[in-house]
Amino acid sequence: QVQLVESGGGLVQPGGSLRLSCAASGFTFSSATMSWYRQAPGKERELVAYITTRGTTNYAESTKGRFTISRDNAKNTLYLQMNSLKPENTAVYYCKASTLLGMVYWGKGTLVTVSS
Predict the structure, then answer these.
(1) Quick one: pLDDT at residue 80?
(2) What is the pLDDT of residues 35-48, one digit of tens each?
(3) CB-count exposure of residue 85 (10 Å: 0-12, 13-18, 19+)
């Protein structure tokens, strides 16, 4: 059974940092492209960043220079380091796996609230 479990969300002040984690199981993590998405209240889900099996990364323009996506294949875990957080970064953050066979899996999300 495939599971993606996000953690690390919470309340943080503007300018603060958080590190999100996504623990994966039930599929070959090292062979999947992994992504972070977010969905703010009243908005559509949007891509934050992704990392390929070879470690190539790509970011949404609004997060470049502040967010860093990484993966630890030995631990089957995806990370998102978020620095200099802004109120507009408030959203539920989701982990997504895209396998070589074309399967797509989503986690249930973790809430990040940026507020003073």
Answers:
(1) 98
(2) 999 999 999 999 99
(3) buried
Distance CA 34, CA 96 (A): 6
Compute the mean pLDDT over every residue in the chain, rounded to the nearest whole number. Answer: 97
Say if CB 109 and CB 92 are below 8 A apart. yes
Question: Would you state the pLDDT for residue 9?
Answer: 97
Residue 111, amino acid: L
Structure tokens at 2: 């495939």
Q: What is the 3-state secondary structure (H, E, C) of the chain?
A: CCEEEEECCEEECCCCCEEEEEEEECCCHHHCEEEEEEECCCCCCEEEEEECCCCCEEECHHHCCCEEEEEECCCCEEEEEECCCCHHHCEEEEEEEECCCCCEEECCCEEEEECC
- Name residue 38's beta-bridge partners: 46, 93
